[in-house]
Protein backbone atom coordinates (compact mmCIF):
# COMPACT_ATOMS: atom_id res chain seq x y z
CA UNK A 1 0.00 0.00 0.00
CA UNK A 2 1.47 3.36 -1.02
CA UNK A 3 2.32 5.79 1.75
CA UNK A 4 0.66 9.21 1.73
CA UNK A 5 3.12 11.93 0.87
CA UNK A 6 1.72 15.44 0.91
CA UNK A 7 2.66 17.43 -2.15
CA UNK A 8 4.24 20.85 -2.05
CA UNK A 9 0.95 22.54 -2.97
CA UNK A 10 -0.81 20.86 -0.07
CA UNK A 11 1.89 22.08 2.32
CA UNK A 12 1.64 25.61 0.94
CA UNK A 13 -2.13 25.65 1.33
CA UNK A 14 -1.84 24.31 4.87
CA UNK A 15 0.72 26.97 5.79
CA UNK A 16 -1.47 29.69 4.24
CA UNK A 17 -4.46 28.46 6.22
CA UNK A 18 -2.47 28.46 9.46
CA UNK A 19 -1.20 32.00 8.81
CA UNK A 20 -4.75 33.24 8.19
CA UNK A 21 -5.98 31.48 11.32
CA UNK A 22 -3.14 32.95 13.39
CA UNK A 23 -3.86 36.47 12.07
CA UNK A 24 -7.55 36.10 12.96
CA UNK A 25 -6.69 34.92 16.48
CA UNK A 26 -4.28 37.82 17.02
CA UNK A 27 -6.94 40.25 15.80
CA UNK A 28 -9.55 38.86 18.20
CA UNK A 29 -7.11 39.01 21.11
CA UNK A 30 -6.26 42.64 20.29
CA UNK A 31 -9.97 43.45 20.21
CA UNK A 32 -10.66 41.90 23.62
CA UNK A 33 -7.63 43.65 25.09
CA UNK A 34 -8.72 47.07 23.80
CA UNK A 35 -12.31 46.46 24.90
CA UNK A 36 -11.19 45.62 28.43
CA UNK A 37 -8.98 48.71 28.55
CA UNK A 38 -11.87 50.91 27.43
CA UNK A 39 -14.27 49.52 29.99
CA UNK A 40 -12.00 50.42 32.88
CA UNK A 41 -13.41 52.83 35.41
CA UNK A 42 -11.08 55.20 37.25
CA UNK A 43 -12.15 56.48 40.66
CA UNK A 44 -10.86 59.21 42.94
CA UNK A 45 -11.96 60.79 46.22
CA UNK A 46 -13.65 59.52 49.34
CA UNK A 47 -15.84 56.64 48.13
CA UNK A 48 -17.06 55.91 51.70
CA UNK A 49 -18.30 59.40 52.51
CA UNK A 50 -21.90 59.17 53.72
CA UNK A 51 -22.73 62.87 53.38
CA UNK A 52 -21.06 63.86 50.16
CA UNK A 53 -21.47 63.97 46.40
CA UNK A 54 -20.70 61.26 43.89
CA UNK A 55 -19.86 62.52 40.39
CA UNK A 56 -20.21 59.96 37.60
CA UNK A 57 -18.44 61.15 34.43
CA UNK A 58 -17.80 59.70 30.99
CA UNK A 59 -15.75 61.06 28.10
CA UNK A 60 -18.25 61.31 25.27
CA UNK A 61 -16.24 62.98 22.55
CA UNK A 62 -12.78 64.39 21.94
CA UNK A 63 -12.71 67.17 19.34
CA UNK A 64 -9.08 67.99 18.51
CA UNK A 65 -10.07 70.61 15.92
CA UNK A 66 -12.04 72.64 18.48
CA UNK A 67 -9.56 71.51 21.17
CA UNK A 68 -12.39 70.40 23.44
CA UNK A 69 -13.26 67.29 25.41
CA UNK A 70 -16.93 66.70 26.17
CA UNK A 71 -17.81 65.13 29.52
CA UNK A 72 -21.23 63.79 30.45
CA UNK A 73 -21.68 64.38 34.18
CA UNK A 74 -24.22 62.95 36.60
CA UNK A 75 -24.13 64.40 40.13
CA UNK A 76 -25.60 62.12 42.80
CA UNK A 77 -26.12 63.25 46.43
CA UNK A 78 -25.15 60.77 49.15
CA UNK A 79 -26.45 60.03 52.64
CA UNK A 80 -28.39 62.84 54.28
CA UNK A 81 -28.04 65.00 51.17
CA UNK A 82 -30.74 62.87 49.53
CA UNK A 83 -34.37 63.80 49.83
CA UNK A 84 -36.22 60.90 51.45
CA UNK A 85 -33.57 58.48 50.27
CA UNK A 86 -34.07 59.29 46.57
CA UNK A 87 -30.58 59.00 44.98
CA UNK A 88 -31.50 61.47 42.20
CA UNK A 89 -33.05 64.26 44.28
CA UNK A 90 -30.95 66.49 46.60
CA UNK A 91 -32.38 67.60 49.92
CA UNK A 92 -30.43 70.87 49.80
CA UNK A 93 -29.05 73.12 47.08
CA UNK A 94 -25.92 71.64 45.50
CA UNK A 95 -23.17 73.41 43.62
CA UNK A 96 -20.42 71.47 41.85
CA UNK A 97 -17.35 73.36 40.69
CA UNK A 98 -15.59 71.96 37.64
CA UNK A 99 -12.23 72.44 35.96
CA UNK A 100 -13.97 73.63 32.81
CA UNK A 101 -13.23 77.18 31.69
CA UNK A 102 -16.36 77.12 29.53
CA UNK A 103 -18.84 76.11 32.18
CA UNK A 104 -17.36 76.57 35.61
CA UNK A 105 -20.12 75.32 37.93
CA UNK A 106 -23.21 73.11 37.97
CA UNK A 107 -26.17 74.07 40.19
CA UNK A 108 -28.90 71.73 41.39
CA UNK A 109 -31.91 72.94 43.36
CA UNK A 110 -33.22 71.14 46.42
CA UNK A 111 -36.22 68.90 45.72
CA UNK A 112 -35.64 68.82 41.96
CA UNK A 113 -34.35 65.69 40.27
CA UNK A 114 -30.82 65.91 38.88
CA UNK A 115 -30.10 65.24 35.21
CA UNK A 116 -27.08 64.61 33.04
CA UNK A 117 -25.01 67.67 32.22
CA UNK A 118 -22.53 68.06 29.36
CA UNK A 119 -19.35 69.85 30.34
CA UNK A 120 -16.65 70.85 27.85
CA UNK A 121 -13.03 70.89 28.99
CA UNK A 122 -10.25 72.51 26.98
CA UNK A 123 -7.39 70.45 25.56
CA UNK A 124 -3.78 71.60 25.81
CA UNK A 125 -0.70 70.75 23.76
CA UNK A 126 -0.54 68.72 20.60
CA UNK A 127 -1.68 69.58 17.10
CA UNK A 128 -4.35 67.86 15.03
CA UNK A 129 -2.05 68.12 12.00
CA UNK A 130 0.15 65.45 13.64
CA UNK A 131 -2.56 62.84 12.98
CA UNK A 132 -2.39 59.97 13.91
CA UNK A 133 0.41 60.77 16.36
CA UNK A 134 -1.27 63.79 17.99
CA UNK A 135 -1.42 63.85 21.80
CA UNK A 136 -3.27 66.19 24.16
CA UNK A 137 -3.48 66.83 27.86
CA UNK A 138 -6.18 68.17 30.15
CA UNK A 139 -7.34 68.28 33.74
CA UNK A 140 -10.72 66.97 34.92
CA UNK A 141 -11.62 67.98 38.45
CA UNK A 142 -14.59 68.64 40.73
CA UNK A 143 -15.42 70.18 44.11
CA UNK A 144 -18.86 70.35 45.75
CA UNK A 145 -20.85 72.49 48.14
CA UNK A 146 -24.14 71.64 49.88
CA UNK A 147 -26.11 74.60 51.23
CA UNK A 148 -22.95 76.70 50.92
CA UNK A 149 -20.73 74.28 52.84
CA UNK A 150 -17.95 72.17 51.36
CA UNK A 151 -18.71 68.44 51.22
CA UNK A 152 -16.58 65.43 50.22
CA UNK A 153 -16.49 64.47 46.54
CA UNK A 154 -15.93 61.11 44.88
CA UNK A 155 -15.42 60.95 41.08
CA UNK A 156 -15.54 58.08 38.60
CA UNK A 157 -14.30 58.43 35.03
CA UNK A 158 -14.95 56.24 31.98
CA UNK A 159 -14.27 56.59 28.27
CA UNK A 160 -16.82 55.94 25.51
CA UNK A 161 -15.13 57.72 22.59
CA UNK A 162 -13.98 55.00 20.19
CA UNK A 163 -11.41 57.22 18.45
CA UNK A 164 -9.37 58.29 21.48
CA UNK A 165 -7.87 56.65 24.52
CA UNK A 166 -7.31 58.64 27.73
CA UNK A 167 -4.44 57.78 30.05
CA UNK A 168 -4.42 58.85 33.69
CA UNK A 169 -1.13 60.63 34.34
CA UNK A 170 -1.74 61.67 37.94
CA UNK A 171 -4.48 62.13 40.57
CA UNK A 172 -4.70 64.84 43.17
CA UNK A 173 -6.90 65.90 46.10
CA UNK A 174 -6.45 69.40 47.47
CA UNK A 175 -8.86 71.20 49.82
CA UNK A 176 -11.88 69.26 48.63
CA UNK A 177 -11.00 69.54 44.93
CA UNK A 178 -10.26 66.19 43.29
CA UNK A 179 -8.82 66.02 39.79
CA UNK A 180 -7.34 63.75 37.15
CA UNK A 181 -4.45 64.81 34.93
CA UNK A 182 -5.13 63.09 31.64
CA UNK A 183 -3.19 62.52 28.44
CA UNK A 184 -5.38 61.82 25.40
CA UNK A 185 -4.14 60.02 22.29
CA UNK A 186 -5.62 58.16 19.37
CA UNK A 187 -6.99 54.71 20.09
CA UNK A 188 -5.05 51.62 19.10
CA UNK A 189 -7.54 50.76 16.35
CA UNK A 190 -7.25 54.26 14.88
CA UNK A 191 -3.46 54.08 15.02
CA UNK A 192 -3.34 50.66 13.30
CA UNK A 193 -5.83 51.76 10.64
CA UNK A 194 -3.85 54.92 9.86
CA UNK A 195 -0.65 52.90 9.42
CA UNK A 196 -2.53 50.42 7.23
CA UNK A 197 -3.85 53.27 5.06
CA UNK A 198 -0.36 54.68 4.53
CA UNK A 199 0.94 51.23 3.60
CA UNK A 200 -1.90 50.71 1.09
CA UNK A 201 -1.41 54.15 -0.46
CA UNK A 202 2.27 53.57 -1.06
CA UNK A 203 1.62 50.03 -2.29
CA UNK A 204 -0.92 51.17 -4.89
CA UNK A 205 1.30 54.05 -6.00
CA UNK A 206 4.29 51.75 -6.52
CA UNK A 207 2.11 49.21 -8.34
CA UNK A 208 0.95 51.90 -10.77
CA UNK A 209 4.54 53.10 -11.17
CA UNK A 210 5.73 49.59 -12.05
CA UNK A 211 2.93 48.99 -14.54
CA UNK A 212 3.46 52.33 -16.24
CA UNK A 213 7.20 51.66 -16.46
CA UNK A 214 6.52 48.44 -18.40
CA UNK A 215 3.99 50.10 -20.72
CA UNK A 216 6.25 53.06 -21.51
CA UNK A 217 9.41 50.98 -21.85
CA UNK A 218 7.79 48.53 -24.27
CA UNK A 219 5.92 51.28 -26.10
CA UNK A 220 2.66 49.39 -26.07
CA UNK A 221 0.63 52.38 -27.16
CA UNK A 222 -2.68 53.35 -25.59
CA UNK A 223 -3.48 50.48 -23.24
CA UNK A 224 -6.99 51.49 -22.25
CA UNK A 225 -7.58 48.92 -19.46
CA UNK A 226 -4.36 49.94 -17.72
CA UNK A 227 -5.18 53.64 -18.04
CA UNK A 228 -8.69 53.05 -16.67
CA UNK A 229 -7.19 51.19 -13.68
CA UNK A 230 -4.75 54.04 -13.00
CA UNK A 231 -7.47 56.69 -13.22
CA UNK A 232 -9.76 54.67 -10.96
CA UNK A 233 -6.96 54.28 -8.41
CA UNK A 234 -6.28 58.01 -8.52
CA UNK A 235 -9.85 58.90 -7.56
CA UNK A 236 -10.39 55.92 -5.26
CA UNK A 237 -7.50 56.99 -3.03
CA UNK A 238 -9.23 60.31 -2.34
CA UNK A 239 -12.30 58.51 -1.00
CA UNK A 240 -10.09 56.05 0.87
CA UNK A 241 -8.26 58.90 2.57
CA UNK A 242 -11.52 60.57 3.60
CA UNK A 243 -12.53 57.32 5.33
CA UNK A 244 -9.70 57.74 7.85
CA UNK A 245 -11.09 57.39 11.41
CA UNK A 246 -11.36 60.59 13.37
CA UNK A 247 -11.83 62.82 10.27
CA UNK A 248 -8.26 64.18 10.06
CA UNK A 249 -7.98 67.66 8.50
CA UNK A 250 -6.40 68.32 5.12
CA UNK A 251 -2.65 68.76 5.40
CA UNK A 252 -2.08 66.39 8.31
CA UNK A 253 0.89 64.05 8.63
CA UNK A 254 -1.04 61.27 6.90
CA UNK A 255 -1.28 63.42 3.76
CA UNK A 256 2.37 64.41 3.65
CA UNK A 257 3.62 60.93 4.52
CA UNK A 258 1.56 58.97 2.00
CA UNK A 259 -1.57 60.40 0.38
CA UNK A 260 -0.13 63.38 -1.50
CA UNK A 261 2.87 61.37 -2.71
CA UNK A 262 0.63 58.54 -3.90
CA UNK A 263 -1.63 60.94 -5.79
CA UNK A 264 1.36 62.69 -7.37
CA UNK A 265 2.99 59.41 -8.47
CA UNK A 266 -0.23 57.99 -9.94
CA UNK A 267 -1.04 61.26 -11.75
CA UNK A 268 2.44 61.46 -13.26
CA UNK A 269 2.29 57.81 -14.35
CA UNK A 270 -1.11 58.26 -15.96
CA UNK A 271 0.06 61.31 -17.91
CA UNK A 272 3.28 59.56 -18.94
CA UNK A 273 1.41 56.49 -20.20
CA UNK A 274 -1.10 58.64 -22.10
CA UNK A 275 1.51 60.86 -23.75
CA UNK A 276 3.78 57.96 -24.66
CA UNK A 277 0.81 56.02 -26.00
CA UNK A 278 -0.36 58.90 -28.16
CA UNK A 279 3.11 59.39 -29.63
CA UNK A 280 3.51 55.65 -30.18
CA UNK A 281 0.14 55.29 -31.89
CA UNK A 282 0.77 58.33 -34.11
CA UNK A 283 4.21 57.08 -35.14
CA UNK A 284 2.82 53.59 -35.83
CA UNK A 285 0.08 54.94 -38.12
CA UNK A 286 2.60 57.05 -39.99
CA UNK A 287 4.82 54.02 -40.61
CA UNK A 288 1.87 51.91 -41.80
CA UNK A 289 0.58 54.52 -44.33
CA UNK A 290 1.06 53.37 -48.00
CA UNK A 291 3.83 55.04 -49.97
CA UNK A 292 2.57 56.84 -53.13
CA UNK A 293 4.98 57.33 -56.10
CA UNK A 294 4.61 60.41 -58.34
CA UNK A 295 4.17 58.33 -61.54
CA UNK A 296 1.74 55.86 -60.00
CA UNK A 297 -1.95 56.30 -60.86
CA UNK A 298 -4.50 54.62 -58.71
CA UNK A 299 -7.72 55.51 -60.54
CA UNK A 300 -9.26 53.40 -63.29
CA UNK A 301 -9.23 56.14 -65.94
CA UNK A 302 -5.55 56.60 -65.68
CA UNK A 303 -4.97 52.91 -66.15
CA UNK A 304 -7.33 52.77 -69.15
CA UNK A 305 -5.70 55.74 -70.83
CA UNK A 306 -2.34 54.17 -70.45
CA UNK A 307 -3.66 50.95 -71.99
CA UNK A 308 -5.22 52.77 -74.96
CA UNK A 309 -2.07 54.67 -75.60
CA UNK A 310 -0.17 51.45 -75.67
CA UNK A 311 -2.65 50.05 -78.18
CA UNK A 312 -2.09 52.93 -80.58
TrEMBL record:
It comes from Streptomyces mauvecolor. This is DUF4436 family protein. InterPro entries: DUF4436. Coiled coil: none annotated. Residues 285-312 are annotated as: Disordered. The keyword Transmembrane helix applies. Keywords: Membrane, Transmembrane, Transmembrane helix. The chain crosses the membrane at residues 9-32, 192-215, 222-244, 256-279. Residues 285-302 have a biased composition (Basic and acidic residues). It comes from the Bacteria. Pfam families: DUF4436. The keyword Transmembrane applies. Residues 303-312 have a biased composition (Gly residues).
